[in-house]
Amino acid sequence: KTFPALFHLFQRGLLPKRIGIIGYARTKMTSEEFHKRATSHFGAEVNQDDVTGFLKLCTYVSGKYDVPEDFKKLREEIENHEKLLECSGSSNRVRVYYMALPPSVFVDVATQIKQNVYDETCINRVVIEKPFGHDLESSRELSTDIGALFSEGEVFRIDHYLGKEMVKNILALRFANVFYEAVWNRHYISNVQITFKEPFGTEGRGGYFDQFGIIRDVMQNHLLQVLSIVAMNQPESLGAEDVRDRKTEVLRRILPIQLEDTLLGQYVASTDGSKPGYKDDDTVPQDSITPTFAQCVLHVDNDRWRGVPWVIKAGK
After folding, report:
1. Among 284, 312, 280, 315, which residue's Cα sits nearest to residue 198?
2. Whole-structure pTM value
3. Labelling 160: which of 3, 27, 224, 225 has CA 20 to 30 A away?
4. Is 81 considered catalytic here?
């Protein structure tokens, strides 16, 4: 999803005029193999001249996540790009390290970036994808470890679901519409349902999915983010900190979830046999009890929503 998104920005002229995109992973690939993989989800109808122009921005470095020499190669590649872009040494340079990685290697990679790639003469940004830890304890430990390497202003913990047009439009729908905001409360709304549906299974990613399940993979991040945006009071501004504070107010007022308000499930093969079941995936343990469907009822205990059930569902 990352490269198609960057490509769409490139097509619309929304990327900086001087930019380099460098892939880094353990897999050994030639430039041609990397470009083929990067464009594999672009679709057949894209303009090939645009694709060619975009790929000129993209290079690849292969290396391990805990080997200093490999990250020094990455630094050399970045510095070579900056020389070609004629921005070497400029204090306006921005280096964005986008870590779409398993949480287990976040700290290793962040440590290597800080020790072998980080440049104090430019602006540095570390972007971390969810899941941010496995539970509360590991999340706090991860925050402490990352915080020891980078300042809070350099770290961006993101949930890509918030980039969906439907989700982004919620703020405008609510706060730019006097009529909706007037009835957006317990006096006029009997219940709220937020549903996440995927018409496909794990498709070979079962080994990864089985470590987290649908609750950690979707509900406690994507759907709670949506819930907080729908339920929050109007922020002082649309600045990041003001929106965050309003969302946090909602999350703090959610009552403990009751077991009788929770439903879990795991999908099986379709009746006609055309779609396999969860355990038919070779990467899934046969004794797995990891849920692929979950539903629960939440209650936000504040003046706006007291007594209104929030039903959130997620399933493959």
Report:
1. 315
2. 0.82
3. 27
4. no
